[in-house]
Write a structure and sequence with these properties.
Blueprint: E1 2-3, E2 19-23, E3 29-33, E4 36-43, E5 47-52, E6 60-64, E7 69-73, H1 82-100, H2 105-114, H3 120-125, H4 129-143, H5 157-160, E8 169-175, E9 180-185, H6 188-196, E10 199-205, E11 215-223, E12 226-235, H7 240-256, E13 265-268, H8 274-281, E14 286-289, H9 291-304, H10 308-313, H11 315-325, H12 332-345, H13 351-361, E15 368-369, E16 372-373
Parallel strand pairs: 1-2, 10-13, 13-14
Antiparallel strand pairs: 2-3, 3-4, 4-5, 5-6, 6-7, 8-9, 9-12, 10-11, 11-12, 15-16
């Protein structure tokens, strides 16, 4: 009887009379029979010949071309080791999952060990996670598609679905006559969270963006008092029409699900091309600026004005700059008065920072950066 290797086998106890097909560490075909491992040797028109892996053993296993056991020649000159077989089957199962999934290697290792019921002897010879992860990381990298050199490429099914084999790639569209590509990844459950959330957060990052794209744009929904990532977008640029395309397509998806993409509050960074699009696409929403990016903008300006050393070494200047940042925490009706107070007490070396804040970051009645209220 022949048994093909199945990564979903839950027990490591197999019938010794079965022929179990597997692969060597180098990917060569092997069979396991009566707790011994055989390498493929040769075949003719009707028979495949398998030779015991132990040197000087010389035992041959015969199967037909469909893998059915026919006979075995000789007697093993070495003791068989059921624990070694159990470990090999477990490692093969882990490897199959590692190459087929994007789940972390450590998590796969822990889950498979937990359900394996290894004997004490098998546990003693099972590689540790450190040893196993080193080899399997290399195997996974070899199996990972190379990074495309253009935006025109096929996305493997593995990356279009979740680990539960549900849809993950939501939007895949080309803009500008096929030159710019927009990709959006999220699951059905994440979409439901997005469309049901009254408050959403949006932010782009540029440092970790893959080649052929300009930014990774993330949308978070608010649930249980936390911001949960619900949409992962690869965008080709930072232009208004691209943001419009993104929001319009998400609105279309909401309609298909019988919902609306109409949050009451939107919190973003201060990307100039994004802000008018948010107002255009979500006119009824309160558009707030992100406090982190607000303080980041002030600190960046401090550096641009050559004040970084003073900010670091001068307690007075550092305290006054922080008071400027803290205006975002004041009640709106007090912001103007507090800003005027800072104008009277700040050292003259900070005059240019105050001018920039007043002209670009906005005062008096509420703090605004390019039209987005920080409230």
């Amino acid at each position: 009887m022949a048994t093909n290797y199945d990564p979903e086998i839950s027990s490591l106890k197999i019938n010794e009379s079965e022929v179990l097909f597997t692969l060597s560490n180098k990917g060569e075909p092997q069979v396991i029979y009566e707790n011994a491992i055989f390498n493929f040797n040769q075949k003719n028109q009707s028979t495949k010949y398998w030779l015991c892996v132990e040197q000087q053993c010389g035992v041959y296993l015969h199967t037909n071309l469909t893998g059915e056991f026919t006979r075995i020649n000789g007697t093993h000159t070495h003791p068989v080791n059921p624990d070694q077989i159990a470990v090999k089957i477990l490692r093969d199962r882990m490897k199959a999952r590692i190459l087929a999934e994007t789940t972390s290697i450590t998590r796969i290792y822990d889950k498979e060990i937990a359900k394996s019921n290894l004997s004490k002897g098998a546990t003693a010879i099972m590689p540790t996670i450190v040893e196993f992860r080193s080899n399997m990381s290399k195997a996974r990298r070899r199996n990972t598609p190379v990074v495309p050199k253009s935006s025109v490429f096929n996305i493997p099914k593995l990356y279009q679905e979740t680990i539960r084999s549900e849809r993950f790639l939501l939007i895949d569209v080309f803009l500008k006559r096929g030159k710019d590509r927009v990709l959006v990844f999220d699951s059905k459950n994440q979409l439901e969270l997005l469309f049901e959330s009254e408050t959403i957060f949006m932010d782009g990052t540029f440092d970790s963006t893959p080649d052929n794209f300009k930014q990774v744009y993330l949308i978070h929904a608010q649930k249980f008092g936390q911001g949960l990532p619900v949409a992962f977008c690869l965008l080709p640029n930072k232009r208004g029409p691209t943001y419009t395309e993104l929001f319009e397509r998400l609105k279309d998806e909401a309609i298909l699900m019988g919902k609306q993409f109409n949050p009451k509050r939107i919190i973003t960074d201060y990307e100039p091309c994004l802000l008018p699009i948010v107002g255009q696409e979500f006119p009824a929403a309160i558009h707030s600026g992100c406090m982190f990016h607000f303080n980041q903008a002030i600190h960046r300006k401090i550096t641009e004005l050559g004040l970084a050393r003073d900010y670091l070494n001068n307690d007075t200047i550092r305290d006054q700059c922080r008071q400027l940042m803290a205006l975002s925490l004041m009640p709106i009706d007090e912001v103007e008065d507090q800003f005027k107070r800072l104008q009277t007490i700040m050292t003259t070396s900070l005059d240019n920072l105050l001018i920039t804040f007043d002209l670009q970051l906005g005062c008096p009645k509420s703090i605004q950066i390019f039209g987005a209220s920080l409230t």
